[in-house]
Amino acid sequence: MDAPWAREQLRRRYLFPSEVELDCEDEAKPETPTAVEKKERPLPRLNIHSGFWILASIVVTYYVDFFKTFKENFHTNSWFLFGGALLFVSLSIAFYCIVYLEWYRGIEEYDVKYPTLVPITTATFIAAGICFNLALWNVWSFFTPLLLFTQFMGVVMFISLLG
Questions:
Q1: For 28, how many CA atoms within 13 A lie in the half-sphere containing its CB?
Q2: Which spans are transmembrane here?
Q3: CA separation for the pair 120, 128 (Å, rounded)
Q4: CA pair distance 79, 137, nearest whole angstrom
Q5: Close Cβ partners of 58 (under 8 Å, ≥ 6 residues apart)
Q6: For the segment 79-116, what is each residue's pLDDT rounded down to a tens digit?
């Protein structure tokens, strides 16, 4: 690679494509790919990664009696109520963004128009996760974050299969 060519490429790296075309009219343009080459095959929804998390979530639910434990400890700890309220707020904002703003109003980039919605949703969801960890800590001890994260990933991967 010769030095003048490298300097010229370095100089052109921040130019807009139209400026680059004007700058190098004498150079030959590479062929543009056809529509068939541009069209990429969509990724399959069910892959090894999502299958693993869904299966792991099912195994965790079965072996730790997740729903039975949740039902027995629901009324004994106030962290469940606080975590549930935060989770409700987080999911409400998410549904507001997806259903109302994107589907009904047609705002595709709602995160640009309303930049505080995504951080608020994320913060409330993380706070809800911390509350659920505190509520179930006396049951599973240091396994609680691992079990809840596995459940979370299983739900996320299952939802990704649906849509």
A1: 2
A2: 47-67, 79-99, 117-137, 142-162
A3: 12
A4: 11
A5: 154
A6: 999 999 999 999 999 899 888 998 899 988 888 899 99
